[in-house]
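Example S7 (structure tokens).
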């Protein structure tokens, strides 16, 4: 589902989706959307956050491994995967598809 930036707050108020992909030509708008999602996740009890920045030939197994282990103090975790180039590559696309399933 494609959610325009102006409708994101309404969608977040109804509850978090399992996955969000934030894209856009305007960096500030993308940052504001990501900030809104993080705030909604915190409010929903996601007390831990992992951030992965993917560049070049990335080892996607690290993302899968982190998803399997919660810390002692966190019940829910937000995983943020940043792809500055906007192109995950063939292996990355497969990994993201598997992760989202």
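Recovered sequence:
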């Amino acid at each position: 589902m494609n959610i325009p930036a102006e409708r994101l707050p309404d969608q977040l108020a109804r509850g978090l989706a399992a996955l969000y992909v934030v894209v856009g030509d305007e960096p500030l708008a993308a940052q504001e959307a990501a900030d809104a999602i993080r705030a909604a996740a915190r409010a929903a009890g996601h007390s831990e956050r992992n951030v992965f920045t993917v560049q070049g030939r990335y080892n996607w197994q690290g993302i899968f491994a982190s998803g399997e282990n919660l810390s002692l103090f966190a019940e829910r975790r937000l995983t943020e995967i940043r792809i500055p180039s906007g192109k995950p590559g063939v292996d990355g696309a497969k990994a993201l598809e598997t992760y989202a399933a």
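Notes on this example. Residues 51-101 form one domain.
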